[in-house]
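Thread: "does anyone have the structure for this chain?"

Original post by V.I.:
We have the sequence but no experimental structure in hand. Need at least a predicted one for the grant figures.
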Amino acid sequence: TSLPPTQERAPHVGTTIVSDEWKAYNRLNALGYDHRTVKHSAGEFSRTDDDGFNSTTNCMEGAWAVFKVDYRVKRGTRRCDLDRLIALRCWRTLKMSIFEVVRVMTESGL
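Reply from O.Q.:
Generated one for you, tokens below.
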């Protein structure tokens, strides 16, 4: 299993990424990211690392759960539309500039 190319190129190198232990994330450190994990398999959902950084995926998992329910109610979503819908959700909920959303979509080839 691997990450889709758009996810590998989206964050700037050096960005801190917190994830669970899904195997596709194993390459993130090698790609130049500061990759931190929470070990859900050990019952861990939040952790303060030795350097004081709080590693948690709770906010992202909550946002993803709301997104999935919202689009499931609309009779599902075609995989080819998923990136556009996520960009639109970011614009609406994170108050991103529409120009930032268009830039992200353009860089992702959408």
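V.I.: this helps a lot. The helical segments are 5-9, 58-73, 82-94, 98-107.
O.Q.: and The CA atoms of residues 13 and 31 lie 7 Å apart.
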